[in-house]
Design a protein that fits this description.
single chain; 363 residues; alpha+beta; Fructose-1,6-Bisphosphatase, Chain A, domain 1; D-Maltodextrin-Binding Protein, domain 2; 2 domains; eight-stranded mixed sheet; five-stranded mixed sheet; 30% helix; globular; binds 2,5-anhydro-1,6-di-O-phosphono-D-mannitol; binds magnesium ion
């Protein structure tokens, strides 16, 4: 009988990556610390109503509102605090930035500073937390440019191509960490008895073609013309210009939607829409150019998706090439199966070139 392959823990995987000189010791420590923080968050999320952690966080006057203008859940605050505390003292970071905090958090003077920057959305999809839907933590790692003692907002304003690692932890029926350090995208499942993340999906691959799309259709009337055309053609199915039937899924928790796409393909779209504000191409207000945040959500997810053979775009340009001008910049997001992302981008390019929908349908 063949011997079953030895299970590979996250720790062993990272040590082997270090031996291959794909990561250094500090980056290994950083990823281990983030993974440990995610285990703590998983416990808090898993307690649900029993832990008294559901509902909104209290602010000075009613609900606490974060920099994004959203009411914070208690678990948003808990997850943010867990990540900050876990990462403060290891000596691997110069600073953190969080979707929940207006300004970056430099490592306190009491601790040594390292040369990495960590960005995170501590609890993505938290509006779903009270209804027990999968949520997750998304993170991105950058090198700190210049002197780690002088870190500021500007230090973080790097394009997604500069990320040295990215990942998410999904708190679902099982807790999984999905990680890239620029050498493929790998999935680890938390063994709850052992307390260890175990490698369960090496080299995740997204099928290039798909028949599944994920979008919040309730915003349809606010979309721009090429989005209307693209989704109209998806919905037309086999009888339409795409010549095949499409299925739709929308969990409204990006981590869960992207996890499905990494597992079985699909396209995830959160396009610009009129109610959000400034059109991204007008570049007047980067904080209102979409719903999802470039640096905490779009960049890490784009790196994971590209490393798994997929594609990621604003609808007009590669997300990872976007140079941020604002820490909390937002961006339209199209990511997933490569051929489908390219199809969606085509609708935008043809619209920008003045090609009419009927002509596009025959193209
Ligand atoms: P959050 O970071 O405040 O949770 O917001 C991001 C979430 C994504 O997880 C999800 O894709 C999107 O918002 C859902 O938006 P909508 O409620 O408009 O469908
Ligand atoms: Mg989020």
């Amino acid at each position: 009988m063949p011997t079953p392959a030895t299970p590979v823990s996250l720790t062993r995987f990272l040590i082997e990556e270090q031996r291959e000189q794909r990561i250094n010791a500090d980056l290994r420590l950083l990823i281990e610390v983030v993974a440990r923080a995610c285990k703590t968050i998983a416990v808090a999320v898993g307690k649900g109503a029993l832990g008294g952690v559901l509902g909104e966080a209290a602010g000075a006057q009613g609900a606490s509102i974060n920099i994004q203008g959203e009411a914070q859940k208690k678990l948003d605050v808990i997850a943010n605090d867990v990540l900050l505390e876990a990462n403060a003292w290891g000596g691997h970071l110069a600073a953190c930035a969080s979707e929940e905090m207006e300004e970056p958090f430099p490592i306190p003077d009491a601790y040594p500073r390292g040369n990495y920057l960590l960005l995170f959305d501590p609890l993505d999809g938290s509006s779903n937390i009270d209804v027990n839907v999968s949520v997750g933590t998304i993170f991105s790692v950058l090198d700190c440019p210049g002197d780690a003692q002088c870190v500021d907002t500007q230090s973080f304003l790097q394009p997604g191509t500069a990320q040295v690692a990215a990942g998410y932890c999904i708190y679902g029926p099982s807790t999984m960490l999905v990680l890239t350090t620029g050498h493929g995208t790998h999935g680890f499942t938390l063994d709850r008895e052992q307390g260890s993340f175990m490698l369960t999906q090496r080299e995740m691959r997204i099928p290039a073609e798909t028949r599944e799309f994920a979008i919040n259709m309730s915003n349809q009337r606010h979309w721009e013309a090429p989005m209307q055309d693209y989704v109209r053609d998806l919905l037309a199915g086999r009888e339409g210009p795409r010549g095949k039937d499409f299925n739709m899924r929308w969990i409204a928790s990006m981590v869960a939607d992207v996890h499905r796409i990494l597992t079985r393909g699909g396209i995830f779209i959160y396009p610009w829409d009129r109610k959000l504000g400034a059109r991204p191409q007008d570049n007047t207000d980067p904080t209102r150019a979409g719903k999802l945040r470039l640096m905490y959500e779009a960049n890490p997810m784009s790196m994971l998706v590209e490393q798994a053979g997929g594609a990621s775009s604003t609808g007009r340009a590669r997300i990872l090439d976007q140079v941020p001008s604002h820490l909390h910049e937002r961006v339209p997001v199209f990511l997933g199966s490569k051929a489908e992302v390219e199809a969606a981008v085509q609708y935008h390019h043809q619209f920008d070139a003045g090609i009419q929908p009927e002509v596009r349908a025959q193209a």
